[in-house]
Description:
Elements: H1 10-17, E1 24-28, E2 34-41, E3 45-51, E4 54-60, E5 69-75, E6 79-80, H2 84-90, E7 103-113, E8 118-127, E9 130-145, E10 152-163, E11 176-189
Antiparallel strand pairs: 1-4, 1-11, 2-3, 2-11, 3-6, 4-5, 5-7, 7-8, 8-9, 9-10, 10-11
Amino acid sequence: xxxxxxxxxxxxxxxxxxxxxxxxxxxxxxxxxxxxxxxxxxxxxxxxxxxxxxxxxxxxxxxxxxxxxxxxxxxxxxxxxxxxxxxxxxxxxxxxxxxxxxxxxxxxxxxxxxxxxxxxxxxxxxxxxxxxxxxxxxxxxxxxxxxxxxxxxxxxxxxxxxxxxxxxxxxxxxxxxxxxxxxxxxxxxx
Length: 190
């Protein structure tokens, strides 16, 4: 469900990197990208899941944040919830149906700057063959050269939520929550 995400990234970079970067294309770094989702479980707790295979691109022009671009692909079969039998169930036909829908995508459509470090990205999330708009609140963390590999890097944090039923994922509602919270942490390099 984010993979939704990573997704929101480009709009704030504009403010934070205006002094240090020109228009640039960045590739999402899968080793430093985490797409988590949280959903209520029977009212007792909140289950946390993770997609660990995310790729994509971010393009932005610090002088024109509205012209940013964002394309993200999340492999649904990479889902992990730290419990093997549940993972197998979630990958099955009643949930993410990874055999038929191996990819979840997010394409940024509008990028709004809110402050020097924050913004909002609204884009099209496609999950289970259904495409709906999702909005992510994004924080621009940093731009610079990563000391470990000398790569020109930008980093973002994004938060959002969606109703899984909007995408046809209705199994066990209302026992398992309809609202899904998203937490996305990413680095992208060029």
